[in-house]
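Hi V.,

You were right to ask for the full record rather than a summary. Here it is.
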Amino acid sequence: GFRWGVGDFNYDGTIDSNDYDKIDSAWLLQGSPLGGVIVGGPVPTPEPASLLLIGLGAAATLARRRRR
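Predicted structure:
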């Protein structure tokens, strides 16, 4: 019979689109935790330029307060 090594990923004895679906779903889970479930969504991360502008603004505010 067929086996996983030759493409029968659902062990039904034939290699068809159902086996491709198994490959496709496994490919989409590549890099995810072993449970396959990712808790939460992506975390927004500010760009380096945005961080630079925020830092410059904070430094300017502190410098202005020290002069007064």
